Amino acid sequence: MNKPVNNKQTSKKKISPANIVFTIFIILLGSIILILSYSIYLKLTTQTAGKQDINKAADIVQLEVMNGCGAAGIADKFSEYLREHNFDVVTLGNYRSYDINNSFVIDRTGNTANAEKVADALGIDRKYIVQQISDEYFLDVSLVIGRDYNNLKPLK
Q1: Is residue 72 located within the same domain as residue 143?
Q2: Which of these, 68, 66, 54, 84, lies nearest to 143 by C-alpha position?
Q3: In the 8-state DSSP scheme, what is residue 148?
Q4: Do 87 and 20 belong to one domain?
Q5: Which residue from 38, 48, 75, 98 could staple onto 67, CB 3.0 to 4.6 Å apart?
Q6: Does position 8 have pLDDT exceeding 90, yes or no?
Q7: What's the pTM?
Q8: Is the distance from CB of 129 to CB of 107 less than 8 angstroms?
Q9: pLDDT band at 89 (very low <50, low <70, confident <90, very high)
């Protein structure tokens, strides 16, 4: 006597196309998650590394020189002095007013070491360094020359 054969036991399981698509979709999502996780890891580690150097002045500081006292040609004289001392003067111009008594340096990037380097090169007291970080400026520092320009290094 032969036993009846159960069709469910002898037939091989068929893989449906929907299961194949679902498996591929899961593998793709897993890959994307791994790539994004690695990208976040790299972003966080490079930001941490960059913060360690934030208080180190750049080899060449890019700056603008603005006349805030109204003396003719003063921005040119200071620019010439700064260029002779390895600063990259990008632009010259006038400040919004001519009644600035004390020259000051504006830190544009958040790295105060660059502003301190400019202030030290000109003999400006570090208490006259202000920070105005802005994405609109493509330079490190702005220098505003005040009425005290005769007391600064370029004219001594």
Answers
A1: yes
A2: 66
A3: G
A4: no
A5: 75
A6: no
A7: 0.67
A8: yes
A9: very high
